Amino acid sequence: MPRNPARTAMPLAVYILGLSVFALGTSEFMLSGLLPAIADDMDVTIPQAGLLISAFAIGMVVGAPLLAVATLRLPRRTTLIALITVFGLGQIAGALAPSYAVLFASRVVSALACAGFWAVGAAVAIAMVPMNQRARAMAVMIGGLSIANVLGVPAGAFLGDGLGWRAAFWAVGAASAIALVGILTLVPRIPLAAERPRLKSELSIYADRQVWLSIAVTALAAGGVFCAFSYLSPFLTDVAGLDEGWVPAVLALFGVGALVGTTVGGRVADAHLFGVLLTGTAASTVFLAALALLGHVAVAAVGLSFLLGLSAFFTAPALNARMFNVAGAAPTLAGATATAAFNLGNTGGPWLGGTVIDAHLGYPAVAWAGGAMTVTALALTAVSLRLHRRTASKVVARGATRAAPSAAAARRP
């Protein structure tokens, strides 16, 4: 009797990739707790320091498809080893950066390596599991990101407060070295496909409007939350009135919400993908509006930080799985496209938030701006669902039409 695919154990290599993502995620998001210290040390404004978050995201947007194409025919394990090494060296360069420009450049280089790792790592994870476990596999990888928010980001803020922001970069460099050892020793060699991937056939996925809808939904859903999250540290101190010492704890609470959201979303999304997308994005919109209205109340700001982490990461496995579903003919580029889409949001969100702050509209307005992005994501998800149902109906109708002549022929004497 065949084994029930729903109970198939997740390969160990997927968990190793999740652990590697912990280092990547810590670097990507730890700046939300370090912006004031970096701005003071580098003699720049907080919105300018916030551009370091956008710089990382821009590197991810460009690097994901670029490196996916460049490494399309290379052994995947070797590619992962090379990329995590470059990423670690980028952290060291950031720790030693003598100026804002050098720090900015180190963030872009690190992001390029991070993007390539995500794209290749996601394709490896998806390839090792059946289709009905794609969201679960992506939840394991995204779980590394969630744990980074629970432990890595607050630890970075704690190190930055006690030893200076550069200590956080050194710590991520050390975590990258540990991830490298894990990949070298525990991730198996992944055999190349019998038929070499062809760039032309992979690029054909971009003729599908559902792919572009998935890109837009992912970018807007992620960008809306990170429009507010990128400036959560000054929001908590300037609006909610919390002492700076509370910021790491609240960032950890956001991470706890992210871990809970990823776990639940990963288990539900395979069976109810659009349900997860609609409810999660709607919840993010409500929480962002509540943060704008109630953020001056410390208890509300803290609680909503947890809920935003939960809603944002509840949708993440579904967003990834949806991209692989609509771009299944090109798994490597599907992973790269999903990574680029998330980071389009991570670029646009902090940029929009910084623009709002520069316009002297205040930190609560940043949450309103994020809410506008998630409302748009919600509308586009509804459009995608309608197209999905229409396509499914046409497939069923064609099947019925083809079956009818066969049935009639079978009744002939």
Which terms would index this structure?
single chain; 413 residues; mainly alpha; 81% helix; globular
Can you describe this structure?
The protein has 413 residues and is mainly α. The protein is built from 15 helices and no strands. Helix 3 (46-70) crosses helix 5 (100-127) and helix 12 (273-294) runs antiparallel to helix 13 (298-326). The longest helix is centred in the last third of the chain and has 49 residues, at 363-411. The radius of gyration is 22 Å and the shape is globular. The model is unreliable at 1-6 (pLDDT under 50).
Brief overview:
This protein is an all-alpha fold and 413 residues long. It has 15 helices and no strands.
Number of β-strand runs: 0
Intertermini distance: 40 Å
Low-confidence stretches: 1-6
- Order of helix and strand elements from N to C terminus: HHHHHHHHHHHHHHH
